[in-house]
Specification:
This is N-6 DNA methylase. This protein has 796 residues and is α/β, with parallel strands linked by helices. The chain contains 24 helices and 25 strands. Among the domains are: 1-65, Arc Repressor Mutant, subunit A (Orthogonal Bundle); 67-131 and 256-303; 306-496, Vaccinia Virus protein VP39 (Rossmann fold), CATH 3.40.50; 615-747, Adenine-n6-DNA-methyltransferase TaqI, Chain A, domain 2 (Alpha-Beta Complex), CATH 3.90.220.20. The protein is 35% helix and 14% strand. The chain has a ten-stranded mixed beta sheet with strand order 5-9-8-7-10-11-13-12-14-15, with helices on both faces. The longest helix is centred in the C-terminal third of the chain and has 41 residues, at 750-790.
Length: 796
């Protein structure tokens, strides 16, 4: 009965039945008993999922829906929205992960019994696992106060108790207010700086608000009336000398990252929770949660700013091993998961979006045994960890925020290096990170390049240099992280424990490792260059010049009127002694490639009457055993190269990595056909010997044909037809998604398939030659411009 609350759109009905949206429209017109809309709009109605499934089953039109798709539809169509549904699903998956017998007992009866038992089980089982009893004041809460310069409660158990009350175990009184969140951390990446944050999120250097209208709402806010448990609010800490009243306003208090859902909420979500449990039995609880979160992120690409796994790993490498780590803008916890685990490790997290803070805690809890204390709230206005002194701070803060608290935080004690201007929100985050470090601790922040050179921040940059707090600035290649059109920077800072004798700063520019097209940077080269330079610099305190890549610069040389820290402005150009010879070699390769392109140019097209073949679909072929269909995963063996959707689109070698997990990765084999399913475009790639053995990445579908029935090149060629892709695609407001099962191809004898396959293979060779010629041409033109302008190439 409760499943009636889950709604599905016409596109979802089409996926359930394995047909096009036009067929769904026809059914609505022709069948009087077709379910009536229960929501949505007149032009885009939604229907009760249970009623639709019953009607399709009655008509014999219900295709065999994969379990993953069914659970995703239940989550995406949840009446309270996908994020609250995802958080509740995470509660249950964590319960299944920790105490599967409790779930088995609770799920044995009706949905009402399930909801009633779960409501207590989440408290009685999960909370002891995460840190302490609900409703008990934390020891040391009053001593730590609630947010330096922010006042208020540092963790309010509003709504019936927070999962993860760890403050009672914290001798320093960190995460005050009775909920320190002892949850577990892991080692995976896919970071989010959500559009649900305050006004601007990682925008271009010119401030431009992102999703400013979305005000963060508490997770499961309805649970405020669920229980008679007291809401514990820690006494406000005494204001710093000279602090304004606004800086201690209780309204700015941080809140608990997790709140126990009520019985009615669990009842409403019961079908989803049962489906998620089935998914966990099939693929594991942590993999099930990663899959659902990944689908949500893919379906809402404009709401979130993702930090690539490779970048998170690089930041963790620069910080080094640590027992206590803080991420004050945690998103979904990718930076904390990238930290190498160690015994007794404690991870601290905070995010302004309650849903993201909750998701972060759940993901971390499902991935390791480390302790995590997390909270939801505006970190700059309501710091949930005011007494913390961490070994490491990792942070990907929101960029270009004007409303970061400039007016109310004017006298905050964190501004040790100067009060940031209204336009310098990133320098506020830098100083917050330094304030939360222990002496000698390291902070690594992702920064917009403008923060290194804006005149409004030069005094703070100068003080960071004079006192030895800023140790390195690393310019990343274009395309390393959103926004992809600018080269972001990494700032490596250390809280000074003594004045450096001859202070120097490491400057690194990895722009030369930018990738081509959508493939992203050469992360292996970036990581090797940066970590090698940083390691040599930290050992010796200086670094010999590496032309065009890295050098250490005396602080005194940077303390001019601008205090410009952009690495490219202080590094000598790369050695160009053999520049002309290199350009000659590029020109020769380009000439050979152009000649090959001419040879591979297809012959004139022979006209032919329109063919009327009998057609079949990929779904029918998969059901008949003519091919095997697999989808890319979210984890696996991290040392195996990963074929990404960008690699397939750009025709490049496998370039990705996946976080380590227990999920069994899908390995490609020569002759497989790989198809991207997000973003539109008619693309299909046949895996060759060089690519075989790579892991199939996310947003990719692999088709493994039975060679006795299907020719791989014939299959790939027909899948690339524009009309074929159009009829098999569904369109959301922000993305196009391809339903590979609906792609069509003709039923032809194997010999005839091979004739077409040979022609498709020749077209593929021609396409690859064109790509290579384009790359070499761009390289030659860029090299000629550089050589002529730096004097290494003569003009005539």
């Amino acid at each position: 009965m409760q499943d009636n609350a889950t709604e599905v759109t016409a596109a979802g009905i089409a996926r359930l039945a394995g047909v096009g949206r036009a067929a769904v429209s026809n059914w609505r017109r022709r069948h009087a008993d077709f379910p009536k809309p229960v929501g949505g709009t007149e032009t885009s109605p939604s229907f009760a999922l249970a009623e639709v499934e019953a009607w399709l089953r009655k008509q014999g039109k219900l295709a065999e829906v994969p379990l993953r798709e069914r659970v995703w539809q239940q989550l995406a169509g949840h009446p309270e929205g996908p994020l609250p549904a995802l958080v509740r699903t995470g509660y249950v998956l964590l319960l299944i992960h920790e105490r599967p017998t409790v779930w088995l007992d609770a799920s044995a009866g009706s949905d009402a019994r399930l909801a009633a038992i779960l409501s207590g089980a989440l408290d009685q089982v999960l909370i002891p696992r995460l840190g302490g009893p609900v409703g008990r004041p934390a020891r040391g809460a009053a001593g730590a106060g609630a947010g330096a310069g922010a006042g208020g409660a540092g963790g309010v158990n509003a709504g019936g108790g927070a999962l993860g009350v760890n403050a009672s175990r914290d001798a320093d009184g960190v995460n005050t207010g009775g909920d320190a969140d002892g949850v577990n951390a892991g080692a995976e990446a896919d970071r989010v700086n959500s559009g649900l944050r305050p006004p601007a999120v990682n925008a271009s250097p010119t401030p431009s608000p992102v999703n400013a209208s979305q005000t963060p709402q508490p997770v499961d806010a309805q649970s405020v009336t669920h229980t008679a448990r007291a809401v514990h609010t820690a006494p406000a800490a005494p204001a710093a000398p000279g602090a304004s009243a606004a800086s201690t306003a209780p309204a700015a208090a941080a809140a608990s990252a997790l709140r126990t859902p009520t019985g009615p909420q669990l009842l409403l979500s019961a079908p989803l929770l049962r489906g998620a449990a089935e998914l966990a039995a099939e693929m594991g609880a942590r993999q099930a949660f990663e899959f659902l979160l990944g689908r949500h992120l893919d379906a809402n690409p404009r709401q979130y700013t993702l930090t690539p796994a490779e970048l998170a790993g690089l930041m963790a490498d620069l910080a080094g091993p640590a027992r206590t780590v803080l991420d004050p803008a945690c998103g979904t916890g990718a930076l904390l998961r990238a930290v190498a685990g160690r015994p007794g490790q404690e991870l601290y997290a905070q995010d302004s979006a309650p849903e993201l803070a909750a998701i972060s805690v759940l993901r971390l809890a499902l991935h390791s045994r480390a302790t995590v204390r997390a909270a939801a709230g505006d970190t700059l206005r309501a710091d949930a960890h005011p007494g913390l002194r961490a070994d490491v701070v990792l942070c990907h803060p929101p960029f270009n925020e004007r409303n970061w608290g400039h007016d109310e935080l004017a006298y905050d004690p964190r501004w040790e290096y100067g009060f940031p201007a209204r336009t310098e929100s990133e320098l506020a985050w830098v100083q917050h990170a330094l304030a939360r470090l222990t002496d000698g601790g390291t902070a690594v922040l992702l920064m917009p390049p403008a923060a290194a050179s804006r005149r409004s921040g030069r005094r703070i940059r100068a003080d960071l240099l004079r006192r030895g707090a800023l140790r390195a600035v690393v310019a990343l290649p274009v395309g390393a992280a959103p926004p992809y059109n600018i080269p972001l920077h990494l700032w490596v800072l250390r809280r000074p424990d003594r004045a450096p004798a001859a202070p120097e700063v490491l400057l690194v520019d990895t722009g030369r490792f930018a990738g081509e097209g959508r493939g992203g940077p050469d992360w292996e080269a970036v990581r090797e260059a940066v970590t090698d330079a940083w390691g040599a610099f930290t050992r010796a305190g200086r670094l010999a010049e590496r032309p065009g890549l890295a050098r250490s610069v005396p602080v005194i040389d940077l303390l001019d009127d601008d205090v410009d820290l952009a690495p490219a402005r202080h590094l000598p150009p790369a050695a160009v002694a053999d520049g002309a010879e290199q350009l000659t070699r590029v020109r020769e390769r380009l000439g050979a490639t152009l000649r090959l392109t001419t040879d591979l140019t297809p012959p004139p097209a022979d006209p032919a009457p329109a063919a009327r073949w009998p057609l079949t679909t990929v779904g029918e072929l998969a059901r008949g055993g003519a091919l095997v269909l697999r989808t890319g995963g979210n984890g696996g063996h991290a040392r195996v190269p990963v074929l990404t959707d960008h690699d397939v689109l750009a025709g490049t070698a496998p370039s990705g990595t996946l976080p380590e997990s227990e999920e069994e990765a899908v390995l490609t084999e020569p002759g497989d056909v790989v198809v991207p399913v997000v973003g539109g475009g008619s693309v299909a790639r046949v895996v060759d010997e060089a690519t075989g053995g790579a892991v199939l990445g996310r947003n990719l579908v692999l088709l493994r044909p039975d060679r006795s029935a299907l020719d791989p090149w014939f299959l790939a060629g027909f899948l690339r037809g524009t009309a074929n892709n159009r009829q098999a695609s569904s369109y959301a407001s922000t993305a196009t998604r391809l339903d590979v099962r609906r792609l069509q191809l003709p039923r032809l004898p194997l010999e005839e398939q091979r004739r077409y396959g040979d022609r498709f293979r020749a077209l593929d060779e021609f396409e690859r030659a064109l790509r290579q010629a384009s790359r070499l041409g761009e390289q030659l033109v860029r090299g000629m411009y550089d050589g002529l302008t730096d004097g290494t190439v003569a003009p005539g």
